[in-house]
Amino acid sequence: MSSRDVILARIRSAVANAPDVEIPRGYQGTGADREGIVEHFAEKVRDYRAVVHVVEAAAVPDAIRDALTRRTAEKVVVPGGFPAGWLAESAVEDLTTVDAVVTTCAVAIAETGTIVLDAGGGMGRRALTLVPDYHLCVVREDQIVPGVPDAIARLDPARPLTWISGPSATSDIELNRVEGVHGPRTLEVIISI
């Protein structure tokens, strides 16, 4: 019998006569109050040192092109399922040679300034947003929810979820901030209203 089997057998024995306990999962969302939600989300994202633009829906393609031009991004990855009118899809084999990645998101959380990707259309696989140094993400106003419980309610837990709260950053023991260690050094967000 392996160590694993021994441990599992002990656990099963210990809980054999324990009563079934129902665990409540009805987390309370913050509700449907959407007043000022775009501004709140934008403020929280800026707190993470990300660049934020709030634009009319019709101006999204221009805002994307302007952001990439300012960045002088020539080699850009755009995942499948990205809205065709915004930017043409593109693929690349070696992500280390890419200047930028442009994605959409599954949901965005106003209270935390967090963007969640689920590898769906317009988001691509997880590596797309972790390897390039610059990530440009387009968030539609209707994707912004007040809080984390509201986001959880919209997400499929079986999908690979990537939660992004600003550019990648960490600090050493002396609290010296280092950006770009575990993901993009620069995050830019276009909020479409």
From TrEMBL:
Limits of the LUD domain: 93-191
Q: Which InterPro entries match?
A: FTHF_cligase-like_sf, LUD_dom, NagB/RpiA_transferase-like
Put simply, this protein is called LUD domain-containing protein
Species of origin reads: Acrocarpospora phusangensis
